[in-house]
Amino acid sequence: MSHPSRSTDGSAGDADYASIGVVYRNYRVADPRIAAFVHAALGDARTVLNVGAGTGSYEPTDRLVTAVEPSATMRRERPIHLPAAVDACAEDLPFADHSFDAAMGTFTVHQWSDLAGGLKEVRRVTRGPVVILTCDPALLRTYWLYEYSPEAIETEASRFPEISALAGGLGGVTRVTRVPIPFDCTDGFNDAYYGRPEMLLNPAARLACSAWSFVAPAAVSRFEANLARDLADGTWDARHGHLREQECLEGSLVLVVSAPRDRHP
Question: Cα–Cα distance between 57 and 28 in angstroms, integer?
């Protein structure tokens, strides 16, 4: 299998991680409550493949993890306590069949240039469950950000694959769980700021959410102006202020777990 087209940074997807990666570690810190869902889904697996591993968010430290990451910038940003990542893409994994007890991927499938090919490869090298933390595009238009920046949400909805495509590509038996997003979530994807709208006025926080890099500057400026105005005059709080008191949000975050049929009870 040939490599998909890659940027000078090595990124295999549509986002430029040479620029995004420099702020990613500051705003995309794995939230332990979300991590608990991911790690539980890995079951008793000892060897785990982390595909599109980035800076290592959500990687378990009590198992033997092999990380794969095509972006040179993201590989350099990995903490020293985590294993160095292999320079490879999901669509062309340099491992033998059934090499790993389990595989995982967090916020990565929307970056794969060949989703079906990547899923087939991940299943090929994995004996047990494949665990994917992603956003369900069908659930993205359910909170206030769609009102202020439909462009950002529509961009996300067009990039994240349908859950049925993930299930079909992996085969086996798939279960999907909605993952609650804590109010003080440390992982700064868009939904994580549901009750902290001020954070999305920070350009660096937005840069760590790759969808914003596809939104036209004029639309970003309009978003900033409208949200800043409505926060200053109380309009946002009058409409959405209850979210500041809401401990968690069932938003678009989902965990997709696919087990081979011959290993499913």
Answer: 8
135: amino acid identity, one letter: C
| Domains of the chain from N-terminus onward | 17-263 (3.40.50.150)
> Within 10 A of 216 (CB to CB), how many other CB atoms are there?
9
Residue by residue, DSSP assigns 165-231 as HHHHHH-SEEEEEEPPEETT-SB-SGGGGTT-GGGGG-HHHHHTSGGGGGS-HHHHHHHHHHHHHHH
Identify residue 176 by its one-letter amino acid code. Answer: V
What local confidence, expressed as pLDDT, does residue 88 receive?
Answer: 96
For strand 47-51 and strand 102-106, is the pairing parallel, antiparallel, or unpaired? parallel
Residue type, 23: V
User: Are 43 and 102 a contacting pair, CB within 8 Å?
Assistant: yes
Report whether pLDDT(6) > 80.
Answer: no
| Spatial separation of the C-alpha atoms in residues 229 and 218, rounded to whole Å | 17
CA distance 241 to 244: 6
